[in-house]
């Protein structure tokens, strides 16, 4: 459990992986989807996900060209876990989740 939580635990990593599961994204696209994450925290989380071999960073040209992020094949092995967590969260909200989950649900609009 410790190794799993080290790789994907925390407030943002599963959300970042969820959106990258829908396709590669530029940093700005990730920022919009994972809001209200700060640029600094998103950068830190992406670097950690890269270090664990879950996310690939693809520069599109010379600096300051946009950078694209996508799941690696190893990162794609997390898709069943991510979907399970998403489904559990939906069920938790339907069940009448506690105040923390309700606040999260109110601040996140569905973007599929």
From TrEMBL:
<protein>
    <submittedName>
        <fullName>Transcriptional regulator</fullName>
    </submittedName>
</protein>
<keyword id="KW-0238">DNA-binding</keyword>
<feature type="domain" description="HTH hxlR-type">
    <location>
        <begin position="1"/>
        <end position="97"/>
    </location>
</feature>
<dbReference type="GO" id="GO:0003677">
    <property type="term" value="F:DNA binding"/>
</dbReference>
<dbReference type="Pfam" id="PF01638">
    <property type="entry name" value="HxlR"/>
</dbReference>
<dbReference type="InterPro" id="IPR002577">
    <property type="entry name" value="HTH_HxlR"/>
</dbReference>
<dbReference type="InterPro" id="IPR036390">
    <property type="entry name" value="WH_DNA-bd_sf"/>
</dbReference>
<dbReference type="InterPro" id="IPR036388">
    <property type="entry name" value="WH-like_DNA-bd_sf"/>
</dbReference>
<keyword id="KW-0804">Transcription</keyword>
<keyword id="KW-0805">Transcription regulation</keyword>
């Amino acid at each position: 459990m410790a190794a799993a939580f080290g790789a994907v635990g925390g407030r943002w990593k599963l959300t970042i992986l969820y959106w990258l599961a829908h396709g590669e994204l530029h940093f700005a696209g990730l920022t919009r989807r994972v809001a209200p994450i700060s640029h600094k925290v998103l950068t830190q989380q992406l670097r950690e996900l890269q270090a664990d071999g879950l996310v690939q960073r693809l520069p599109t040209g010379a600096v300051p060209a946009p950078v694209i992020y996508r799941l690696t094949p190893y990162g794609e092995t997390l898709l069943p876990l991510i979907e399970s967590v998403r489904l559990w969260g939906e069920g938790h909200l339907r069940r009448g989740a506690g105040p923390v989950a309700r606040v999260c649900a109110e601040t996140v609009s569905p973007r599929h």
